[in-house]
Each structure stands twice: as C-alpha cells, then as structure tokens.
C-alpha cells in the first residue's frame, strides 16, 4: 500500500487507512427475492459512490435477469433459518407467497424498487450485467431469454479478466 497511513484506534490498536475501493464485481448465485436484493443494493450503492460495478449472475441467480421470471421471484421460507419459523410451517401452502408479499410491502415503504426496475436503474448508471455461460448452457438459455440490460453471456475466465483490480463479492 503506497499511500497507507497508520493511526491508532481508541483502544490503542493500530488502524491502517487503505486506498478507497474503485471497482467491485458482485456474483449473484441464488434466485430467491431475499438472495437477489443484497447484490442489487450493493451494486447500486457502489454506483452511487462512483465505484465501478459489475454484476455476474450464475446458477439460480439468473432468475433475476430472465425476462419471464424476474418479476416472479419469491422469498424462500423452507430451510431459511432467518425466517424464524419452523421448516414445517414454511412449507405450508401460501407461506412463501405471504412472506414475499410482506417483504415487497416493506421494500416499497423504503422506496426500494422492484427487481426489474432496480436492474434497469443500476444498468443505467453504467454498471455492467453479465450472465454466466456455463449456467446458461446448463439451463439451455439464450441471450433472448434475458432482460435487455444483460450486456453479454460470459465465461468465468472472462469474468475474472473483467474483474481485474476489483473487490469480488459473492452473495
């Protein structure tokens, strides 16, 4: 670190001031509503701070960029310990729909846009959005299956090339 400064925290521990983050690459691998939003919020926050952002959707995370599916993401209620409900209750008919409806209401109150609008917003700020080639091939998808904001279908190797110098965040 060329421009690092050392300061002392209140408890006497040395704190190192590092250079600001200039670039992030965010991998979104799960397709539930509660799994997609953290990556979108982080990408949006990065762009608002002037940080270059790349979103890479892989496996079930691609549900958030598939045109016919992105408006239908649900909250996972079964096997989700953060729901604080027994798995048996989470599996009851209508529980996922109920949890999804409640989460969407809370997000709307906080002025957090729906997935489609959020992806459009993030892309419009200059973020790059990619789908994982291996996952696209595995699920037999094509570029036509994705929303217009998807810039390309790329390999993991290409993702790493584009992420040179970036902080990689896996959500």
Explain what this protein looks like in three dimensions:
- This protein is 34% helix and 19% strand.
- It is an alpha/beta fold.
- The chain has a single domain, classed as 3-Layer(aba) Sandwich (Hypothetical Protein Ychn, Chain: A).
- The strands form two sheets. Strands 6-5-4-3-7 form a five-stranded parallel β-sheet. The protein has a two-stranded antiparallel sheet with strand order 1-2.
A few lines on this structure:
By secondary structure, the protein is of the alpha/beta class. It has 6 helices and 7 strands.
Total count of helical runs of at least 4 residues: 6
Structural class comes to: alpha/beta
- Fraction of residues in helix: 25-40%
Question: What is the name of the CATH architecture?
Answer: 3-Layer(aba) Sandwich
**The CATH H-level homologous superfamily:** DsrEFH-like
- The total beta strand count reads 7
Mean pLDDT across all residues, rounded?
Answer: 89
| Unreliable segments of 5+ consecutive residues | none
Pattern of helices and strands: EEEHEHHHEHEHE
Strand content: 15-25%
Read across the widest sheet, the strand sequence of neighbours is: 6-5-4-3-7
Q: In one word, what is the shape?
A: globular
Oligomer: single chain
Distance between the termini: 27 Å
Taking all Cα atoms into account, the compactness measure Rg is 19 Å
Q: What is the CATH domain class? A: Alpha Beta
Protein name: Peroxiredoxin family protein
């Amino acid at each position: 670190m060329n421009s690092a400064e050392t300061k002392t925290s209140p408890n006497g521990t040395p704190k190192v001031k590092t250079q600001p983050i200039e670039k992030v690459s965010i991998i979104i691998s799960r397709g539930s509503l509660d799994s997609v939003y953290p990556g979108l919020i982080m990408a949006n926050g990065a762009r608002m701070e002037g940080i270059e952002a790349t979103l890479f959707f892989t496996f079930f995370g691609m549900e958030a960029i598939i045109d016919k599916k992105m408006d239908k993401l649900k909250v996972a209620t079964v096997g989700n310990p953060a729901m604080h409900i027994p798995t048996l209750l989470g599996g009851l008919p209508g529980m996922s729909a109920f949890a999804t409806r409640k989460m969407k209401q809370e997000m709307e109150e906080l002025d957090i846009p729906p997935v489609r609008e959020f992806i459009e917003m993030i892309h419009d700020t200059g973020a790059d959005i990619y789908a994982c080639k291996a996952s696209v091939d595995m699920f037999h998808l094509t570029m036509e299956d994705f929303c217009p904001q998807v810039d390309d279908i790329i390999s993991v190797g290409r993702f790493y090339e584009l992420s040179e110098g970036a902080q990689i965040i896996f959500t």
